[in-house]
């Protein structure tokens, strides 16, 4: 008996279970869009201020 022909086909192993909200190429994170250092510094300062207030 050929057991390889019984049952359903095997699913893809490398397929992700779901899509990420910030995946490359999505509207939130388009390809080629690299944040500038000024944006990074502004985010870090805002986070520091928010942490200081808590």
Describe this structure in words.
The chain is an all-alpha fold. 31% of the residues lie in helices and 0% in strands. The longest helix has 17 residues, at 37-53.
Pick out its properties.
54 residues, mainly alpha, 1 helix, 31% helix, elongated
Spell out the blueprint of helices and strands.
Layout (H helix, E strand, L loop, with lengths): L36 H17 L1
Task: Give me the number of helical elements.
Answer: 1
Q: What is the global morphology?
A: elongated
Q: Supply the helix-strand structural class.
A: mainly alpha
* Secondary structure: number of strands: 0
The whole-angstrom Rg is: 23 Å
- The residue-averaged pLDDT reads 82
Largest sheet: none
Please estimate the helix content: 25-40%
In short:
By secondary structure, this protein is mainly alpha-helical. It has one helix at residues 37-53. The termini are far apart.
